[in-house]
Specification:
16% of the residues lie in helices and 36% in strands. The strands form two sheets. A four-stranded mixed beta sheet has the order 1-4-3-2. The longest helix has 12 residues.
Length: 121
């Protein structure tokens, strides 16, 4: 096993709002796809890396407790973190040093999911 994680899903009550939020925060475009019973919008990946999506209609509900997904904060997580509140989210923990492991920050997205960023700078 090369990675403990190979996929994640962030549930949304308001799919369009959540897709817009992550597109703004990460300065990217999520790729939407409709299925018979649900909607998904995929985060970009490179070289078959770990992927994930925003989902709606699969029975999952946004959570502010429980599992914490860390998104790649790029070269400096301060950049996407600075967009969180402008996009409608809330910063719960500002950029915080974690020693030789870099930095982390935690936020609530527009749907109420608790999510984190990680970067080395």
């Amino acid at each position: 096993m090369s990675n403990a994680i190979n996929w994640f899903e962030l549930p949304a009550e308001n799919f369009d709002r959540a897709v817009k939020f992550y597109g703004q925060v990460l300065a990217t475009e999520l790729q939407p796809m409709d299925f018979p019973e649900m909607k998904m919008a995929f985060f970009p990946t490179q070289n078959n890396g770990i992927g994930g999506c925003v989902t709606h209609g699969n029975g999952n509900k946004p959570q502010a407790e429980g599992t914490l997904v860390y998104l790649n904060g790029g070269e400096d997580l301060g950049v996407p973190l600075s967009r969180v509140e402008m996009a409608g989210g809330k910063i719960l923990m500002p950029k915080t040093g974690i020693g030789e492991n870099g930095f982390m920050a935690i936020f609530l997205d527009t749907e109420g999911n608790r999510v984190a960023f990680h970067s080395m700078n």
